[in-house]
């Protein structure tokens, strides 16, 4: 719990990024192309947050970068497939 409160500002930033991304997906539900752009921006923001978070704590490794990239790509694929399906 101590670690969570120590990094609370980082996690609130991540929550804000995700909340803004999902709000963009909902608010622009009438424009599929813009939704894809929002999903792509959300994925890039997630990777940027992860890299900066680990860089600030001096535990950034190439494996960590690829892990965040893989999760972002998978998330983008899921969101993209849901956008295209509807």
Model description:
Keywords: Membrane, Transmembrane, Transmembrane helix. The chain crosses the membrane at residues 12-30, 36-56, 65-84. The chain has 86 residues and is mainly alpha-helical. It has one domain (2-85). The chain contains four helices and no strands. It starts with a helix and ends with a helix. The mean pLDDT is 94.
What would the keywords be for this entry?
86 residues, mainly alpha, globular, membrane, transmembrane helix
Rg estimate, integer Å: 14 Å
**Strands, count:** 0
Pairing-aware structural class of the strands and helices?
A: mainly alpha
Q: Helix and strand string, N-terminal first?
A: HHHH
- The overall average pLDDT, rounded, is 94
| Number of discrete domains | 1
Q: Low-confidence parts, pLDDT < 50 over ≥5 residues?
A: none
Which range best describes the helical content: under 10%, 10-25%, 25-40%, 40-55%, 55-70% or over 70%? over 70%
Q: Note the total helix count.
A: 4
Percent of residues in β-strands: under 5%
Describe the global form. globular
Largest sheet properties: none
Distance between the termini: 41 Å
